[in-house]
Amino acid sequence: MKGPQFNADMRWADRQGLPDLLLANDKEGAVTHYRRLAGAKCYLSPRSESDVELFKKWDNDLEVILPASMNGYNTPATLAYEDPARAKEMLKHLFVIVDSQTEQPIGWCSLFFRMPENRHAMLAIMIGEKEYWGRGYGQEAVTLLLDYGFNILNMNSIELGVYAFNERAIRCYEKIGFQRIGIQRESRIIGGAKHDTVLMDMLASEFESPVVKASIRGSQERTAASGG
């Protein structure tokens, strides 16, 4: 199973306001979302040309971006311009989150290596369509991304940071199985108010695969049944 596909030459030309690094290798104007990892509510797909305007919309909605453990300007889209090397790493394992029933892209999630020699990665997620908040889509998307990280990328630990005021997100991560490992005190200042960042992580030994291992078993069973 291969990782997300990008334009072969990784050009930095501006297309529809975003550089090519943000785009999947699809035909002009085609809607190309693929069910890389699928759950009951949503699935993870490589990025498509058709997602460009949504990324720009989400990046410019402060209600969406400020609680997302970001600065309001440090997003995959802006990083592609301001810090290409970091953006390339972040976008290497970035997926669009798509509603399984409506095929509507509702956000994105990503893994990027923090200490690859120790098989350690950081997780980021943003549900950009606000009507999907509090309905379990983020929880399922994170679970699918963890399955990808632990069982395809072979990570041993995956970490995230979440602002202490984002209690809804903290509850979501705790339901999935993340544990609190520390606090970065007064690490974020918004509108003059200082906020802590809650650090959380999960180990591969603590995660139960919902998709990848079942797919492997199914493939092995089909191979055995066919005599191949």
Structure description:
The chain is globular, with a radius of gyration of 18 Å. The protein has an 8-stranded mixed β-sheet, sandwiched between helices. It is α+β, with helices and mostly antiparallel strands and 228 residues long. It is 29% helix and 29% strand. The model is unreliable at 1-27 (pLDDT under 50). The protein has a single domain (14-226), classed as Gcn5-related N-acetyltransferase (GNAT) (Aminopeptidase), CATH 3.40.630.30. It has helices spanning 52-59, 62-65, 76-82, 84-91, 137-151, 167-176, 212-226, and strands at 14-15, 18-19, 37-38, 42-45, 94-99, 105-115, 120-127, 157-163, 179-190, 193-203. It has 7 helices and 10 strands.
Give a quick rundown of the structure.
The protein is an alpha+beta fold.
Q: What's the gyration radius in Å?
A: 18 Å
User: How many distinct beta strands?
Assistant: 10
Q: How big a fraction of the residues is strand?
A: 25-35%
CATH class: Alpha Beta
Average per-residue pLDDT, rounded, comes to 80
Topology:
Layout: E1 14-15, E2 18-19, E3 37-38, E4 42-45, H1 52-59, H2 62-65, H3 76-82, H4 84-91, E5 94-99, E6 105-115, E7 120-127, H5 137-151, E8 157-163, H6 167-176, E9 179-190, E10 193-203, H7 212-226
Helix pairs in contact: 3-4, 5-6
